């Protein structure tokens, strides 16, 4: 289907575009459309679904649970734990809550949503216990900058981390300074959230930018598809756009087949240059 793939933990090969779910489960009137969009996405090959106990207070996980009916084995299911639940018995209880809402008995990947409450030692210990119990297959982190990744790497078992999920889009390129190269050197896949720039710094106008539009026209695709193609053009990076319509999901899946030329990439990056030095990690 596509030549753009990502490898998790050296063993799982997935298309470099998955599906986000933030804001799903908030409006009961949207539930049907959200379930249909997620199911259509899986059928189109967008088999990684990213959710979190935080989204709609568990409501997004319930939508995903419904969407997974008959599809569980096709899906690489990711959820996230609040920092204040990411240790000890709280982690076990939080994971069990997610599994119940998702109507499944295991997660393919469980992420620390952001750091802060428990030490990395405590979180790694809890994640490894969840693996031993068969509740999760692997674990990772989100919103950690390079200094925190280095600290995690010094913790016993820390190198088992399978990904870092961070904000990344054409108008927010701070990770290119040191975090992205660090992850690439350590063969750690990066999951780019908000790849369509609906959040984070400098988001305004990106989908309407003349350079983005011109390149979209040349490929006969939409500006959003160009943004996704740019994100996944980076080694070891996958994108997890959230789409609540079948039309958007189809477009996002088709973006796997777009290859930007060197000139097009240069034009996009000239319009939205990377910061010259270190900047604080952008996040929602
Ligand atoms: P995105 O950048 O994915 O943008 C989502 C918006 O883009 C929605 O309004 C959606 O509309 C629209 N959209 C989707 N596809 C298209 C398309 N082909 N053309 C035009 N518009 C489109 O933003 P998110 O912030 O949702 O990020 C994606 C995912 O990343 C989240 O859903 C979540 O899973 C994860 N995330 C993780 C965070 C973390 O801290 N770890 C923080 C934020 C997000 P519509 O829904 O109508 O289709």
What would you say this structure looks like, in words?
With 284 residues, the protein is an alpha/beta fold. Helices cover 37% and strands 13% of the residues. The strands form two sheets. A seven-stranded parallel β-sheet has the order 3-4-5-6-7-8-9. It has a two-stranded antiparallel sheet with strand order 1-2. Helix 1 crosses helix 2 and helix 3 crosses helix 4 (120-132). The two termini are 32 Å apart. The site of NADPH dihydro-nicotinamide-adenine-dinucleotide phosphate (NDP) has 27 residues, from helix 9.
Compact description:
The protein is of the alpha/beta class. It is built from 10 helices and 9 strands.
Structural descriptors:
37% helix, seven-stranded parallel beta sheet, 284 residues, alpha/beta, binds NADPH dihydro-nicotinamide-adenine-dinucleotide phosphate, two-stranded antiparallel ribbon, single chain
């Amino acid at each position: 289907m596509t030549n753009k793939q990502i490898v998790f933990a050296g063993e799982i090969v997935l298309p470099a575009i998955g599906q986000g779910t933030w804001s799903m489960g908030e409006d009961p009137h949207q539930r049907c459309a959200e379930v249909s969009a997620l199911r259509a996405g899986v059928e189109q090959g967008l088999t990684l679904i990213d959710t979190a106990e935080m989204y709609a207070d568990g409501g997004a996980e319930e939508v995903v649970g419904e969407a997974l009916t008959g599809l569980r084995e096709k899906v690489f299911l990711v959820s996230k734990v609040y920092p204040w639940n990411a240790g000890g018995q709280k982690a076990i209880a939080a994971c069990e809550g997610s599994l119940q809402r998702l109507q499944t008995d295991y997660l393919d990947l469980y992420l620390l949503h952001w750091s802060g409450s428990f030490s990395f030692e405590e979180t790694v210990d809890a994640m490894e216990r969840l693996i031993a119990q068969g509740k999760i297959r692997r674990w990772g982190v989100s919103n950690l900058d390079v200094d925190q990744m280095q600290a995690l790497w010094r913790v016993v078992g820390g190198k088992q981390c399978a990904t870092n999920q961070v904000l990344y889009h054409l108008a927010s390129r701070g990770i290119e300074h040191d975090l992205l190269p660090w992850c690439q050197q350590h063969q750690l896949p990066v999951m780019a959230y908000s790849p369509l720039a609906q959040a984070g710094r400098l988001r305004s106008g990106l989908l309407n930018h003349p350079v983005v539009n011109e390149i979209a026209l040349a490929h006969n695709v939409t500006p959003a598809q160009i943004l996704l193609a740019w994100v996944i053009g980076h080694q070891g990076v996958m994108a997890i756009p959230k789409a609540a319509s079948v039309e958007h999901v189809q477009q996002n899946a088709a973006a796997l087949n777009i290859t930007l030329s060197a000139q097009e990439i240069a034009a996009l990056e000239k319009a939205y240059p990377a910061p010259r030095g270190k900047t604080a990690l952008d996040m929602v």
